[in-house]
Design a protein that fits this description.
Blueprint lengths: L1 H12 L3 H79 L22 H8 L9 H28 L4 H6 L2 E3 L9 E3 L12 H38 L13 H10 L6
Antiparallel strand pairs: 1-2
Helix pairs in contact: 2-3, 2-6, 4-6, 6-7
């Protein structure tokens, strides 16, 4: 061991100042090269990650615009349908006579909502909400998903109640319908002549009022889901440097105000 140490000292002692300087420079160059290569690799990975996140964000905006377009159309259609049904229900409940020919099938129509989820599912499977850049976007998506789940639960509850109604009453009053609790279909008033005395039955009126009530509750959940979708679309589009344009159309009226409110305050 002593012999080896003496040999090392002798070899090192033969290296002059110039050689030591060159050795230091070479060592520094090697270390710097390694660090630069590592940093470049990290930069490339971060760049690819940002590009993937930006692409996913764009897809989320596209998906949100599709959902908003569908939900607005669905909401507005059911809202007009509800007003017409309420007018006729008022005649039935408060005037003890059959409503004129019209459409009260709103109280019986409980359709599911088939909304696009492919981009959201991909995000959920590759990191979840943490992929989104700011808390505002994460909160908007979480609120929308919560509203979707709430609507689905309320719809299931309303359908479970609907199975207990005596649909023979509907036939007797001139309604034609088919009903499968798993996939309810609409009904229509066929204009068959009935007597006002038939519509004075309190049990029948109670069933009609109960069906209408639960259908209206489902509609309120549907409208709340549309509102959450609009807010999510506005927030995600803003993060992507875009505007929410469902169906390639600008938001208007209350929907536009709702989107503007969603963008107020710090994004953090």
């Amino acid at each position: 061991m002593i012999v080896l140490w003496r040999r090392i000292r002798k070899a090192v002692g033969g290296i002059g100042p110039t050689e030591w300087a060159l050795l230091a420079i070479e060592t520094f160059a090697v270390v710097a090269g390694i660090l630069i290569a590592f940093e470049l690799e990290q930069w490339s990975e971060r760049r690819e990650k940002r590009a993937a996140q930006a692409a996913l964000l764009d897809r989320l905006v596209d998906e949100a615009e599709q959902s908003v377009a569908f939900l607005i159309e669905h909401r507005d259609g059911f809202d007009g349908w509800r007003r017409a049904a309420r007018t006729q229900l008022d005649i039935l409940i408060n005037e003890d006579r059959c409503p004129p020919e019209g459409d009260m099938s709103f109280a019986r129509n409980l359709p599911s909502l088939h909304l696009p989820t492919s981009a959201y599912d991909e995000m959920a499977g590759t990191g979840g909400l943490s992929i989104l850049p700011r808390a505002r976007e994460r909160r908007a998506v979480a609120d929308y998903q919560a509203a979707r789940n709430a609507f689905a639960q309320q719809l299931q509850f309303a359908r479970s109640l609907a199975t207990g109604y005596d649909f023979g009453d509907w036939d007797r009053m001139g309604f034609v319908y088919t009903f499968d609790p798993a996939k309810p279909a609409g009904s229509s008033y066929n204009g068959r002549k009935v007597h006002d005395g038939d519509c004075a039955d309190e049990t029948f009126k109670g069933r009609m009022a109960s069906a209408m009530y639960h259908a209206e509750v489902v509609h309120e959940f549907r409208a709340a889901l549309a509102a959450e979708a609009i807010e999510m679309c506005a927030v995600l589009a803003d993060a992507a440097g875009r505007q929410c344009r469902p169906g390639d159309q600008s938001l208007t009226g209350d929907d536009l105000d709702l989107a503007a409110e969603a963008l107020e305050g710090p994004a953090v």
